Amino acid sequence: MDARNFTFMFYGFLAAWLIVLVYIVTLARRSGRLRKELEDVKQLFEDKQAAPKAR
Amino acid sequence: MSIQTKPLNSSDAAVPSGPATSANSVVVDRLIYAFAGLAAILLAYNLYQIFMVLGDELQQGAIYRIIFFHVPAALTAFIGFFVAMVLSVVYLSTNNLKWDSLAAAINEVSLVFACVNIVTGSIWARIIWGIWWTWDYRLTSMLVCILIFFGYLLLRQSIDEPTQRARLSAALSIFGCVDIVIVWKSIEWFRTQHPGPVLSIRTGGGSMDPTMEAAIYRNLIPLLLIAISLVILRARQESTAREIDSLRRRLM
Q1: Quick one: pLDDT at residue A55?
Q2: Res. B4: pLDDT tops 50
Q3: What span, in angstroms and rounded, lies between the C-alpha atoms of B173 and B45?
Q4: Domain locations in chain A?
Q5: What pTM was computed for the model?
Q6: Is the pLDDT of residue B17 over 80?
Q7: Which of B168, B174, B177 lies closest to B77, judged by CA?
Q8: Which residues of B touch A53 (CB under 8 A)?
Q9: B251 vs A2: CB contact, 8 Å cut-off?
Q10: Mean pLDDT calculated for residue range B37-61
Q11: Minimal Cα–Cα distance from A38 to chain B, Å?
Q12: What is the rounded CA–CA span in Å between residue B238 and residue A4?
């Protein structure tokens, strides 16, 4: 097997999985951010609903 | 799938997700794990076949094996763009935002696989053609496709109003599919640098060793399973974003 040929084949496979992996990491980070944002907004909403009752 | 179609317009609608939603979420999680697990098993088997069973190609040597990811990645992307186009048409005829969200999720994941296709192709070209890139019709039309769908994602980020965003995104998704046809047919219409059609579904057979062609189709299945898992994850994010948006509007 031609060594240079084999090296570039390895680069090709590596590049393919790196792209997918980077996207998965991006997705995971975005999920965490959205979850936190949802909790914050829900908290705000509940505070707003509770405020008139307290008065 | 955890896409929520129920509008948050009643006073109790914004109450944190109940047991039913949690149960749905667990089912979706299990589905994602099942797809990813199956994809991993199939990929392990395919890699064994690609490296240990199939020999080197007579003229290209080992580098030809890139085709086992290059072509399935392109097919995964094309299938995704096409499904997203259909969903965009469905959105335009129903005005239901869940179809727009699903189309956006599919287009984003398909774009990732289109990038895999073009990068692996470029690495293959460096050895076989001696260059990383050339303005060949197939390569250029694929690059245009990537730019169109990258523009699609930028467009979605730049418009806040959900209905307007969905309508314009749907139009761009449909327009992008016209380019997919050009990418697909370009190697028949213009004979330039990129190899011509080799798959028997296009040539009727005889251009490629059947065992090599079978390995391409076998690798398409795990890539599709991975794409579906990613779409489910991405669609869930779109659903959460819609929920946040709806709550924010009610807070105003």
Answers
A1: 53
A2: no
A3: 35
A4: 19-55
A5: 0.88
A6: no
A7: B177
A8: none
A9: no
A10: 91
A11: 6
A12: 44
B123 within 8 A of B66, measured Cβ to Cβ? yes
Write out the two tokens for B77: 């992307």
Handedness of CA B238, B244, B247, B251 (dihedral sign): negative
Q: Is the pLDDT of residue B252 over 90?
A: no
B127 close to A (CB below 8 A): yes
Give B125→chain A minimum CA distance, Å: 10
**Residue A52 scores a pLDDT above 60:** yes
Average pLDDT over residues B21-48: 89
Packing angle of the helix pair B210-251, B19-48 (nearest 10 deg): 160
With cut-offs at 50, 70 and 90, classify the pLDDT of residue A53.
low
Q: Which of A51-55, B11-15, B125-129 has the lowest mean pLDDT?
A: B11-15
Contact A15 B120 (CB under 8 A): yes
Architecture (CATH level 2) of domain B21-251: Up-down Bundle (1.20)
**Interchain CB contact of B126 with A (< 8 Å):** yes
Cβ contact A12–B248 (<8 Å): no
- Chain B hits for A13, CB-CB cut-off 8 Å, are 65-66, 69
Exposed / middle / buried, residue B242 (Cβ in 10 Å: 0-12, 13-18, 19+): buried
Please name the member of B11, B66, B244 whose beta carbon is closest to the beta carbon of A9.
B66
